[in-house]
Amino acid sequence: MKTITKLSVLALLIFSFVQCKEKSSKDSGQTLTDEQIINESKQDFNQRMKWWRDAKFGMFIHWGPYAVPAGVYKGKEVDGIGEWIMDHAQIPVSEYEEYARQFDPVKYNADKWVKMAKDAGVKYIIITTKHHDGFALWDSKVSDYDAKDFAAIHKDLLMPLKKACDKYGVKLGFYHSIMDWHHPDAQRPNYPNYNTDKKTNPNFDSYVENYLKPQLKELVETYDPAVLWFDGEWIPEWTHAYGKEIFTYVREMKPDIIINNRVDVGRNGMQGMNEGNEQFFGDFGTPEQEILEGTSDFDWESCMTMNDTWGYKKNDHNWKSARTLINNLSDIAAKGGNYLLNVGPTAEGLIPQASVERLAAMGDWLDVNGEAIYKTERLQNHYKQGENIRYTKKEGQPVYYGISLDKPGSSITFKYLKPNDGSDVYLLGYDQPLEWKYSEGQGVTIQIPSNMNREDFDQAMVFKVNGAEV
Ligand code: FHN
Question: Best substitution site from 238, 261, 310, 339 to test ligand 1's pocket, by max atoms within 8 Å of Cβ?
């Protein structure tokens, strides 16, 4: 009898262990164990990353109470990026909370934002659900420090965005800061230097268990994000063990979600790729304000601003030109990465006009040239030729694109392309096939028609070749 009882207890224990390890996802119906998440096969990983790799172009949105001071504190311009004003101007929590109270984006129109992004050729949006200041843009049940309960707007700001993204077929992902300057068990006690690397909060574990994780759960379960984009992982409290815990926690809830490498502690400064050979968690690297010099076998996404700030600063007018942005997108695509281009809406909820104009120019260019960007892959041996030529290739097809980042003269030579005999070579946006000549060692030289209206081609010009890489 005793043996039977022992066996039943053992069976029960094994059963509950398996139940614990096999948490299922409501969304995908998939069930993954921690083991399967950690040792994911290459094939499953490729499948999970497919839409993201094809997308190439995303829009980052940094939005929160920092848009209220918009870079100015007590009448003085504060140096640095706008969303860091709480730290840079050493603003006490209670005083910063006043900005959150005043946050009243009455002109916010999520449908307009997403339509504009869609027209710009953007395939996914990543929005700051909570930045380092700790303020949540949704109606969190874990805290009242959010747009619904605390701010003048008294609304969940994420749900309209989710609905608009679903309507326009744009994927929605969430930025989420691990560092939190508002939470007493995180970095709040560090005031006046919230970002110190010296102090560690002895209660940090409680912040992770009772705040960070429940908020992530709300976000995943309520809005079903396609990406979780972590940040603020450099704080001394954050460890590889936390990285592993949060990575598996999120993927158990939603197995097909994509998570950036900042969930763990492997990021190599602003270059953003993981350092060393250690096994860090995260699906892609995150170079910040820079583009990789070359290529990488690890997936990556360059996040960049259009001016010099992520969060809105009313006096930052240092806008990059549309040409620079288009060339960045071409350069990144040629190197096999994604471009996550930022906008910082105002406290009223408007995307600055300068950003709107640049995104419209990108959309016009992508309408004509998008086939050289989306669903493309790197060439086997060459992604560039000198400073002004980039190459891409249609995924799985012998179709190649030579992209001229500056204005060519009467002809252009692509050293690494050989058109099929008798095939037509095209300039995207121009109807007629172009004259071309191939010579061994030199590549293909393409004539640019003299009667062509050059004004129609004032950005990067894309030439399409059916053939091979040489
Ligand atoms: O500190 C942040 C910064 O405010 C901004 O959000 C960027 C975007 O990648 N990330 C951090 C610095 O790495």
Answer: 310
